[in-house]
Structures are given as C-alpha cells and as structure tokens.
Design brief:
Its cofactor is Fe(2+). InterPro entries: Phytyl_CoA_dOase-like. This is Ectoine hydroxylase-related dioxygenase (Phytanoyl-CoA dioxygenase family). GO terms for molecular function: 2-oxoglutarate-dependent dioxygenase activity; iron ion binding. The structure is a single chain. This protein has 9 helices and 12 strands. By secondary structure, the protein is of the alpha+beta class. It has a domain of about 230 residues: q2cbj1_9rhob like domain (Jelly Rolls), CATH 2.60.120.620. Strand 11 and strand 12 form a beta hairpin. Helix 3 packs antiparallel against helix 4 and helix 5 packs across helix 6. It starts with a helix and ends in a 28-residue tail after the last strand. It binds 2-oxoglutaric acid (AKG) and fe (ii) ion. The site of 2-oxoglutaric acid has 11 residues, from strand 3, strand 9 and strand 10.
Length: about 350
C-alpha cells in the first residue's frame, strides 16, 4: 500500500517536473493528475490554458496551425520519409496517402465474424436483462427496430473490448499522428437517417482535426437499410461550427437540437451541393470497418425498406493531449473529467497563453 503511494507520488513528481509547473491546490491526487494530463494542448503552436476557457466554442480558440500530420501540405513527403526510415510499413503508407487525399478508409474484414457475433450477442443480452434500455425512436408506425444506445461500452465489456481493439486504436493513432484515446460509442439496430454533418461540431478539438471515428458493421448491410453515406474529400472543406451558422450558446440551451436542424443541417446540405460532392454508400459485410476523419461529411441515408436492420457500432477517438469539447453545447468533453477539477485559470506555466474567452 505504502509503496503504491510512494510510486504514485514519484510518478506525479515526474509529471510535474516534465510539465514544469506547480500544483493546483484544492484538488485530490487523482484529479490533480488528470488536470495536469489534460491541462493544455502541448503540441498546439498557441497553447491554451484549459482553466481559462470560459465558453468552449470554436470561435474562442486561436487559429492554431498545428494540424494532424496527414492534413499538412507536405503530408505525402512526410509519408515517404517515414516509409524510407521504416517508421511505417508499405501498407500503412498506402493508408496514409489515401487518408490524406480522401479523408476515410475502408478496412474490409477488419474484425473477425466470431468477435462481431459475440459482441452483438452481449449487447442483446444486456438489453434483455434490462441493463440497457433503448427508446423506440420509431421512424414509421411499422418500424420494429429499437433506437440507438449511447456509450454501451460502459455496460457491455465486449463492446469496451472492441472499442479498445488494438487494430482500431493503432489505425486511429497512425492517422492522427498521436495516441488515440477511446471516447464514445454508439450502437444501432437500424439506420439513423441522420442528416449530413461533420463530427467536429459534436466532438471538437483544439487544435482542430484530432478526432477519428470508425463504423463497424455488425452484420451484412443491406442496400435498402439506410447505409452510412460519406463524401470523399470533404475533410478538406472548411470546418463549419455553430458560430458560422449563427447558433449562439444560448440558442442551443433554449432550443437544443432544433437550432441545429434549423441552421446547421441546411448549411451542410448547401456545402454538399456547392462542392458537387460524390456521395458514397458504405455497403459493408459483417466485420468491415469504415474509418473517417474529424471533418469528413457523412450521415445516414434514407431507409428504403423499413424492415431491414442495420446493426452497427460507431466509435469516436480523440488524440491524446488536445482540448476536447462540444462546440454546439459549448461544454468541455467528458474526457477531461468534471470541470470543477480543472486547474484554476493561470495555474499553468508562464508560456501558456492566457485567453479569457468572450461569452457569445
Ligand atoms: O450511423 C449513422 O448513420 C451515423 C453515425 C454518425 O454519424 C456518428 O456516429 O458520428
Ligand atoms: Fe457522425
């Protein structure tokens, strides 16, 4: 017990030394560690003190040029350099080139059918036991499939295992250029028919672009079930945030997702038209995985035949070390822990830019 405390203290001392800053008083040991780990975006060219951010909205962060490596103008040169130095394999180089150009990647048969079946059976068991309660979210009177479940990995161990599957984590770490941290899961029995969007308005990072997602087909996906759709290359379009479409934090507090449907969704439909973008449908076999970039525009296509299920698990991963927040709700992400555990504004070292954000 004593040696654990000593080694915890030694570990903390090392973290502090490396970070070169003093402790924030008033936090318990665990909270202090967490606060330090997520204190600011250390790789950002303009670091931010998370404790100074009053309103977590994209317009309140500086225009950092610290993009993920595959978003940088010389990404292809960097890929060749890493390949030549044997830091990545020929297959990884191919993935990286494709990601840079198109903002997504399809890994056929990435997860074996036995794992898929066992994971889905565990999910169904949790529903049958009443450990997970799904709302109906009926799309029509004859829609018999249940609605989605948010974060089922917190209840179902096998979903948590799949979220942390090394092949998925390694892929995301490769394309993000930093260690991928599992954040959120969504399980669905049926097509979402969700309007086109970029995940960056829901799961935002500072600096931008440090999110990756994947969609795991938990069965063979029928073409009429409302497959996932995506627009190759749309990750290069300008990011669209709440501020850009006139949604203020109070609009979202008062109207919730109605404000998003009124302003953001039409803006994204316009963007798709203006870019004359080519829509792709993810017609997957069980175990196929589609990975996408933080800003790739995607959604759920119409369910042409309501009787078809469309079983899937979606995972979202953040890159370690960035600030993660929900632009729409103007709130910090749960990966940082409770906001009351954030360091007080100004507790970081002197090189951190202190930026008090103006409430919108
Ligand atoms: O499954 C879908 O249809 C859409 C899922 C999605 O957009 C997401 O989880 O980010
Ligand atoms: Fe999404």
């Amino acid at each position: 017990m004593m040696s654990r405390v000593v080694s915890q203290a030694a570990g903390l001392a090392r973290v502090l030394k490396a970070a070169g800053r003093t402790l924030t008083l008033g936090l318990d040991l665990k909270a202090r560690k967490r606060a330090i780990r997520y204190h600011y975006a250390p790789k950002a060219d303009i670091p931010i003190d998370i404790g100074c951010v009053e309103v977590f909205r994209a317009e309140n962060f500086p225009d950092s040029k610290s993009q993920p490596w595959l978003d940088q103008p010389d990404a292809l040169v960097q890929v060749e350099r890493r390949l030549a130095r044997r830091k990545i394999t020929a297959k990884q180089a191919e993935i990286c080139r494709f990601w840079h150009e198109h903002g997504y990647y399809v890994a056929r048969g990435a997860i074996d059918p036995a794992t898929i079946d066992a994971t889905w059976a565990a999910y169904e068991d949790a529903i049958t036991r009443g450990d997970l309660i799904l709302s109906q979210e009926k799309a029509a009177d004859d829609d018999l499939h249940p609605g989605r479940s948010l974060n089922p990995h917190q209840t179902v161990g096998l979903i948590d295992d799949l979220l942390k599957n090394p092949a998925l984590l390694d892929f995301c770490s490769l394309v993000l250029g930093r260690k991928a941290i599992p954040f959120q899961t969504i399980a669905s029995h049926k097509g979402s028919q969700q309007s086109e969007h970029s995940d960056s308005i829901h799961m935002t990072t500072y600096p931008l672009g440090y999110l990756a997602a994947c969609w795991v087909a938990m069965e063979d996906i029928h073409v009429d079930s409302g497959p996932l759709v995506y627009y190759p290359g749309s990750h290069r379009w300008p990011y669209v945030f709440s501020h850009d479409v006139g949604i203020s934090p109070s609009d979202f507090q008062e109207k919730g997702y109605a404000a998003y449907a009124e302003r953001y969704e039409p803006a994204m439909r316009r963007a798709v038209e203006e870019h004359d973008a080519q829509k792709q449908h993810f017609i997957a076999r069980k175990g196929d995985v589609l990975f996408w970039h933080a800003n790739l525009v995607h959604g759920g296509s119409p369910r042409n035949a309501i009787q078809h299920s469309r079983k899937a698990l979606v995972h979202h991963y953040f890159a370690e070390g960035c600030i993660c927040y929900h632009d729409l709700a103007a709130s910090a992400s749960a990966v940082h822990g409770p906001t009351e555990n954030f360091p007080v504004c100004g507790a970081s070292d002197a090189s951190v830019v202190k930026r008090a954000s103006a409430p919108a």
